[in-house]
Amino acid sequence: MKIIEQRLPQDYDKSFIVFQEKGPFFPNQWHYHPEYELVLVTQSTGRRMVGDHIGHFSEGDLVFMGPCLPHVWVNDEIYIKGAAPQQANAIVIQFERDFLGDQFFRIPEMEGVRQVLGSSNRGLHIRDQARDRIAPLMEEMLEMNGIQRLANLFRIFDILVQTSEYEVLSSPGYVQRTQLDHSNRIDRVTEYMLRNFDREISLKEIASVANMAVATFCVFFKDHYRMTFIEYVNTVRIGYACKLLTESSRNIMEVAYRSGFNNLGNFNRRFKAIKGMTPSEYRKLIEVASEAKAM
Predict the structure, then answer these.
(1) Spatial CB neighbours of 269, under 8 Å, sequence gap ≥ 6
(2) Which of 140, 123, 137, 133 has the alpha carbon at shortest distance from 67?
(3) I need a labelling partner for 284 at 20 to 30 A (CA). Which of 6, 108, 132, 135 fits?
(4) Would you kindly state where each structural domain of the chain is located, as residue ranges?
(5) CB of 232 closer than 8 Å to CB of 203
(6) Among residues 294, 234, 293, which one has the least CA distance to residue 266?
(7) Sequence-separated (6 or more) residues with CB below 8 Å from residue 205
């Protein structure tokens, strides 16, 4: 399935985009772009897809996404056909990583922001009080210019740094990491898994990557990832399978094999346990969504 690159217009005198989307929204395609994006739905309901995550949205839905993460917001039919009492509406903020210069986010004060930007590569659904604080700041920015507009963006950054009120959307296997930090065990283990998940990885092998005994590694892994090593590998594999189902016409058996499963029955069971549907149902849902009028 083709995913298009899509860009929003930017004013020549502004360093980042604040944009209001109304009505039918985007074309009927999954899309991505090189900018970070914050999307606040102010009026509409429908289905939201970010990477391999499928969820529902309504008024007040707030999501922060990193660069090149495929996504689409599909309005419910009542909005698509113009039968809703109000047209669909959303506020979008987009910015490039170097919009303030290539060194700005490297200064010590931006350490927390750098971590948030890294987490956004999988998409973050911002909830509760954090969302309630960010939403009015985004609404104000539609009428702002200059330093006030930039100041509100920094207030949003500060809220994102301070909060734990968010859900990570896309699975690790869906995101292709190109720059991996080898500075600690977590990063080494994550890199090794993401590079080798399509084959069998023994506990002894992965424990040696972390330079730990197997029993110690199992405790370490569950403490940091909140699941067992096998559960995490299966999550990565299913995430990658979703990517293949979305972006290619390969049959289910080939998708299973390329994702690290040697048994089709096991693949189908794991897929349904993690995604709540079969691989065929997932592919059909993506195809239907791509044909709908998208936000």
Answers:
(1) none
(2) 123
(3) 6
(4) 4-170, 178-290
(5) no
(6) 234
(7) none
Tokens of 263: 């048994």
Sign of CA dihedral 161, 178, 268, 263: negative
- Please tell me the CATH superfamily of domain 4-170, with its number: Regulatory protein AraC (2.60.120.280)
166, β-bridge pairs: 126
According to the model, what pLDDT value does residue 177 have? 43
In sequence order, what DSSP letters do the residues of 238-250 get, joined into one string? Answer: HHHHHHHHHH---
Parallel/antiparallel/unpaired status of strands 53-57 and 89-95 = unpaired
pTM for the predicted model, two decimal places: 0.73
Q: How far, in Å, CA of 39 to CA of 62, rounded?
A: 6
Nearest to 114 by CA among 133, 100, 129, 93: 100
Whether 93 contacts 17, CB under 8 Å: yes
43 touches 87 (CB < 8 A): yes
Q: Is 175 helix (H, G, I), strand (E, B) or coil?
A: coil
The CATH class of the 178-290 domain is mainly alpha
Joined tokens for residue 282: 């997932």
Residue from 74, 5, 66 nearest 46 by CA: 74
Q: What is the pLDDT of residues 41-53, one digit of tens each?
A: 999 998 888 988 9
